[in-house]
Amino acid sequence: MGIFWKEIAIGTGLALTIALGLWGINITPVAILASLAILLYLIVDGRLAKDGKLETVALDGANSGEMKVGFDDIGGQESAKRELLEALEFVNNRENCRKLGIRPLRGILMVGPPGTGKTLLAKAAASFTDAVFIATSGSSFIEMYAGVGAQRVRRLFNKARQAAIQQGKKSALIFIDEIEVMGGKRGRHSSHLEYDQTLNQLLVEMDGINGDVEPSILVVGATNRPDLLDQALIRPGRFDRIVRVDLPDKAGRLHILNIHARNKPLASDVDLRKIAQESFGFSGAHLESLLNEAAIHALRRKSRKIENEDMREAMEKIMLGERQDRKPSTEERRRVAYHETGHALVSESLRTGSVSSITVTPRGQALGYMRQAPDGDHYIYTKEQLLDQIAIALGGAVMEEMIFGSRSTGSQDDFQKACELAERLIYSGISSLGIVSKEHVGASEVDQEVRSIIKQQEERVLQLLQNAEKVIDSLVKELLYHEKLDGNRFRELMAG
Q: Which residue of the set 83, 340, 348, 449 is catalytic?
């Protein structure tokens, strides 16, 4: 009926326009006004945004060819997978849930840093439930015109239902990445109600989900900023499960490396366990990039296999950036060599085997770099561990002053890190100030305590470097000649 009346209106308009032209009336203003009216209608209806403006991707969750992803293909997220699988059991076993009076889930929110596999988990969930997979992002719904976002939300849910019906599926999974863009707290945009209207429509659509009616809809959201989300969106009954997708631990990193190394020829000297240990803080995306960069480096060398040298180069590229063409002067290179050797000597003195590599090759913003090999994944730190890290950060500056009689601007980042660690000591209640809070301790007290901690560690570092004075020059000479030393060679020179 709606299409019928639209056809009548269009036909009447065209007939009137032709009649006005035949009567000799200038129809240009009428044509302009009609065009503007049609354009405004299309904008409000959201049709100018080709279905593509929603940037939705509709896939058969179980039979999407190369896009098929299972939970076995995702490493380092065992806890998140267990929690997600438990939630998905309610979708697969609707009959048993109905007998127990369990309300079907409407939404699952995945929270975690970028690159940890939230999108892959959503695809695996679609495969596990044999659902149509509809992917989009929160930014696809926001426009300058009020009402457009709400219209797109309605179209998204309709598209999911229609895709499931066309493919003969009992359910559809809608994945909304960066959901904080459209689901942010209401009232923050007082001059732009489009955000609030879009969120309101999403709330209405989720409230209207009925798990007993096929095809059923499951909404999976992903964000790394859960603090921005409106409380009405994350309450039970909408997003019933909040799944943490954190950075992987050592075992998880090894699992991810093994997954991404399946199609890569690794040489016998590549130890993925050691790489997993040294890559603390890496996400799944970082680890995939690590192996990819190592393969690229092997290709540049025209090697048929990825060797340990390629892995080390890839690790430093990800952590520091690409090699730079900057050419420091001879005196600057010498100062940088002593600076990095100072870091390495303090680190090795405090924990044997902690130095992974030292380089004086400029990378990113750094003219040189000393990379430590962590002894494990640490989530809490003792006072002694934090003081050791402060000492290592000060090692370069103290070495410069000991050799050249002065310091340089190259220690700026080291000092910033040392001060941050000292403040962490203070606010953790393990400094001489005892237990304090940011609200009740004065800035002057904190500043004085930071200075005291830094001063004590400077004296400690100077003593450590003076004890190793006999090997400093030989270490620097070797470093300047080769431009890079690995940890094993560094320890050989120290022993000699």
A: 340
d(CA 56, CA 176): 9
DSSP-derived 3-state class of residue 383: helix
List pLDDT tens digits, range 184-228: 887 765 555 667 788 888 898 888 877 667 788 889 999 999 888
Inter-residue contact 328 to 335 (CB < 8 Å): no
| Mean pLDDT taken over the chain | 84
Peptide bond into 215 cis (omega under 30): yes
**Rounded distance between C-alpha atoms, residue 272 and residue 266, angstroms:** 10
**How far is the C-alpha of 109 from the C-alpha of 132, rounded, in Å?**
18
What is the model's pTM?
0.75
Say whether 372 sits in a helix, a strand or coil.
strand
Burial of 200 (0-12, 13-18, 19+ CB in 10 A): middle
Answer positive or negative: Cα dihedral of 68, 70, 72, 78: positive
Let me know if 278 is a catalytic residue.
no
CB 394 within 8 A of CB 383: no
> What local confidence, expressed as pLDDT, does residue 105 receive?
82
- Interacting residues of 59 by C-beta distance below 8 A, sequence separation 6+: 67, 123, 126, 132, 133, 134, 135
Q: Tell which residue, 388, 405, 407, 384, has the closest CA to residue 396.
A: 407
Report the run of H or E that residue 241 belongs to, with start and end.
strand 241-244
DSSP states along 396-416: HHHHHHHHHSS--GGGHHHHH
Provide the CA 349 distance to its chain's centre, in angstroms: 35
The angle subtended at Cα 370 by Cα 468 and Cα 494, nearest 5°, is 30
Q: Which domains does the chain have, with CATH numbers?
A: 2-45 (no CATH), 50-244 (3.40.50.300), 253-320 (1.10.8.60), 330-495 (1.20.58.760)
Instruction: Please list, in sequence order, all residues whose beta carbon lies within 8 angstroms of the beta carbon of residue 293, skipping any fewer than 6 positions away.
Output: 313, 314, 317, 318
With contact defined as beta carbons under 8 Å apart, do 441 and 307 qualify? no
Instruction: Give Cα separations from 474 to 75, 325, 470, 478, 480 (angstroms).
Output: 44, 27, 8, 6, 10
